[in-house]
Amino acid sequence: MNHTASATHLGDRIPLPRTRARIGVARRDITPPTGIRAKNWGPAEWERSEGAHRPFELTALGVIADDERPRVLLAVDGTWWRRVADEQRVRGAILSGLGLEPDQLMLSLSHTHAGAVLCAADAHLPGGELIAGYLEALAAAGIAAAREALDAAVPGLIEWVTGRCPLAADRELDVDGRPLVGFNPGGEADDTVMIGRLSVDGEVRGTLVNYACHPTTLAWQNREVSPDYVGAMRETVESATGAPCLFVQGASGELAPREQYTGDVAVADRHGRSLGHAVLAALHALPAPGEELTLDGVVESGAPLAMWTGRAAGGGEGAAGSVTSVELPLRDLPTLDELAEQWKDIDPRSREERLARARNLREGYIDGPTVPHPVWAWRLGDAVIVGHPGEAYSRLQKTLRAHFPKTPIVVMNLTNGPGFVYLPTRDAYARGAYQAWQTPLAPGALDLVEDHAITVIAALLDHN
After folding, report:
1. For position 361, what pLDDT does the model report?
2. Which range has the worst mean pLDDT, 183-197, 356-370, 439-453?
3. Cα R_g (the chain), whole angstroms
4. Three-state secondary-structure class, residue 88
5. What is the pTM of this model?
6. Cβ(379)–Cβ(461) below 8 Å
7. In sequence order, which residues have a C-beta less than 8 Å from that of residue 345 and are 6 or more positions away?
């Protein structure tokens, strides 16, 4: 090993990326009512929830940086938007209630597959009569939590660190020539956990966790609503830090737990503790809030000892943001009648679930040969937060982080809308993966989003 390639001197520091701004955190309970429609799996023989495994939470992070433009991140335990109209109604109500512009709010769903159906058009189905009221309650909770977080915002820090967790696995498995959705022992998965430690005057006030892994532990056998692994993760981190934990889903299009599709909530809790302990391991390795390790001197012992000590550090000022869009091409789509014919021999419940998803994906979204795909981006001090409504494969986050290796980048799927569609790799299209035939987007859409996001991030960093 070459120890002289990079000279180190007394007084040198190990920089810790940070965001310096006024910050506030607030939370509301958004547990869906018992009896609400929660049928998210084709094989499910039930439609109404029968209870709650763990509470559902909506947690607001309010940030007011030196540009004095308030920004709100809402981390929401929720499934996924099935119609453009529902997402627009909820987010629009929150924007209106807070007096914010579209670039100032990111509403990010955790993507649990054991939650309430977020589709008011299902009012005629069992449990569907409760959905409209729940969506109104969700918007009200978003307004109240965001207002509280912004009103309580005081000067503080978000310090960024990367951890690792082996929970996520590749879920693109080929068996006897058929592409399945399940653990692929030969695949590789991005294990990156991006973590933000929020503090005020040296006291931890919250933790932001960004990890890419489908919350599909619990499936059709489970009849309770559940935040899946996110619930136990949050409990683990909050018990150790004494402060709220916000979870935002990463680019997890092809990632999920190895063990999934079960009704055993203990498995979901075990998964959550795995991620929670990975978060805590990374946090415990940090110096005290507001400090950086500094080479203070040398102590002569049996060997000359380099003395690295935590010292107060500055930096992390500045902010900028944008909401932009990139035009994505559509593939040649079969009609709904053609899909019904194609799926006529599968289980009727699963066929109707597939057809409903296809119908909802098209309503209010597809109008021409291309569709605009929105991208929200904030630069907050030394870090960047990027959100989009689709389900991108993990290559998106890996590409962005590799392109900007010195910048912590939070990458969020299922954020705002419209465009609740998969963004698979070209290889996924070639092998006929579920994500590729389910999405209306043509091969190459992921490439276009990556290129666009790189341009957006570069512009924000140049704005510094």
Report:
1. 72
2. 356-370
3. 22
4. helix
5. 0.94
6. yes
7. none
